[in-house]
Structures are given as structure tokens and as C-alpha cells.
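Marked as duplicate of an earlier ticket. Keeping the data here for the record.
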Amino acid sequence: MKRKLSKLAGPLRRGVLLLTVLSLGGIAALVIAAGGRESLAAFGSLSPGYVLAALLLVGLDLLLGGLRNHIFIRRIQPGADFMLSFRANAANMFMGAVTPSQGLGGPAQLAVLNLGGIPLGAAVSVSVLNFTGTILFFGTGVAAALLFFQRWILSGTIRSILWGCAGLFLVAMVMLAAALFKPSWIKGIFHGAASLLKRVPRIPTARILRVESFLAGKVDEYHGWCLEFLLRSPGVVMLSVLLTVVLYLNKFTISWLIARGLGLDAAWAAMFSSLYLVTFISYFAPSPGAGGIAEVATGILLSPIIPGGYLPLFTLLNRAFILFIPAGIGFLTAVGTLKNLGSQGPSD
């Protein structure tokens, strides 16, 4: 186990380094575009009161993420400590920030929950149902921006991208529906992979069959818990969707407070459509934590709202409050989890 953890430490360090370098590069690009002198002058207009308010909402962001997990976890394991759900969410944020396309964010959350006594299939159901809430929020956000906030969408490019996002989220909803109601398709993928691996001489067929059987069992367990929540506790699923809405609106409000703290009279609705796109791009960006990509996207998409001289500082503070600070807290959680992995095993 310790050898596996040491192998994981190297890629994580590289992910942190790559995130730092790319993010600084993106900020530097904004500074060059705006002019260094104007960017420095923006520091003088920063209001500590708004910064403090934004920091308080960062704490609320972490609590909401943990609560979104906990409403499911307390039904899977009555009496479970809220901190288990909080640590799982924080670990998700850190690992998602230092791996491409948030690749290890979900597995990190599953590892923390499984280590805390939550069966793997049940933990997967929590992630899938929460992701469903995220997709519903973004899909509704696209529709709201296109139908009700047209006069605040200051760029034709943003409007075009929103229509593209609508299509992508429709595809995501279809895939989620398949994952929820057609688990046999997932088993079919595992079976196909197993059939291919059987052709590899060095891999024992018995081992391949054991792994396939294990994964198929976890799919059944995951599907059973999904049906449990959807059919017997639909109120919990609806609450998850509501918490997802509050979670992301809270993130957008943090960004709006930063703009207000810089003395900018930015309309919240106008920022919503642009921040929605930045969040969407960051969610699927290939670089760790969307490093470099998120900074440039912020500079482009918020340029109609944030003056050029303020964009570098706004982007730096926005990334710090939305990603770097929560990921730092998640790092402490991940370190503790990795230490525990060396001393105890996961639950079935």
C-alpha cells in the first residue's frame, strides 16, 4: 500500500506544479494584454469588506458541498459523521484541481467515503445523483440565460456558446439516464473489456473473470441504491438538486462580490451568463484545474463586464476563492486520507 501511495505522490506533485505554472501563465497573459501599470493600479481599489464577505462564502461553499453528500450518506449509514461527507467533498476538490479534466476528483471522493465505511456501490450512487443535479442546474442555467437574460448577454459569442452548451448538456442527460436505468449497458462495457483482455496471454483468465464479476456486482449495488433514492426517497434527490443550485449560485456570488470589492458596478445577472460559461469550460478543460484555460476564458468572457485593467486581479482573486483555497483545504483532507489508507482497508 505504501508503495502505491508513493507512486501517486509523484503525479500529484506534477499536477500541482502544472496547475501553478499554467495559472500564472494565464494571469501573466491578462496582465500583458491589459498593461502592467493598469493591473497594479487595480490593487488600490480593493475593498477589504467585500473580500471578507467573499471568504465567508468560500466557507459556505465547502459546507454546501459536504451537505450535498451528507443527505445521501446519512441514509446509507445512519449516524454517519457529517465530517466524512465534508472530507469527501474537499478531497474531490483537491484531486479534481490537480488532475486533467478533474479525472481523479470523483475517485478521491469514493475513496474517502469507502474508507469511512460506505459501500463502494452506494458511494458511486451518491456521485452519480449529485452529478445529475449539476447537469440539471447547468441545463436550466443555459435555458434561463437564453430565454430570460438576453438583454444582459453582452456578447454574441457568449450567446452562441450557450446554444452549444445546451446541446452538450442534453447529451449528458441522455448518458446519465442510461447509467441510471440501463446498468446492463455498463456491464456490457465491462464484459467487452474482459473479452479483449482474455486475448492477452500474460493475464490469467481466472483473474479477469474475478474482476469482471466484482465490477458487475458493484454495478448492481450502485443501481440498487440509485433506485432506492429515486423511488423511495425522491425528496432527497430533489434536495440534492436544490443544494446544487444554491452551491453554484453561491460560487457566482463570490465572483460578484470580488467585482464589487474592486469598485465595479457589475450586474449579477450579466455576470451569471459569463461565469456559467467559464464554469462549464473549466469543468471539462483538459489541463489540471483548467489551469491557463480558465484564466484566459475569464479574461475573454468577462471582458464586456470587467475593465481590462481590473481583469488580471479579478481573475486571480476569483480563481483563489473558487479553486485554490478550497483545493488547499482538500489537500489537507487528501493527505490525512492517504495516511489512513496505509493503515486500514476499505469497506466492501
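See parent ticket for discussion. The first helix runs from residue 2 to 34.
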